[in-house]
Amino acid sequence: MNTSVNANAVRFDEDSMWVDLNDGRVIGVPLAWFPRLLNASMEQRNQVRISSRGLHWESLDEDISIVRLLEGFGDLTGNRKTFAA
Description:
By secondary structure, the protein is α+β, with helices and mostly antiparallel strands. It has helices at residues 35-38, 42-45, 66-70; strands at 7-12, 16-21, 26-30, 49-51, 54-57, 62-65. A hairpin with a 3-residue loop joins strand 1 and strand 2.
């Protein structure tokens, strides 16, 4: 897996989160994968902080790894051990 892939931007529509990557790809994932984002207001969703490690929403206590998105994983809240590398 290429770990140098980072997010450039994040946007939302009614059902999905769209992540623009620095290599030109765009990842679209259903908000149903991330219940905290699904149940959040658009204002809360737009408060995302993009870092080299992924996406973070302080007020929602949500962190999403770009590497995990590329691997096809959604919310692992019930299984946080899976994130350990």
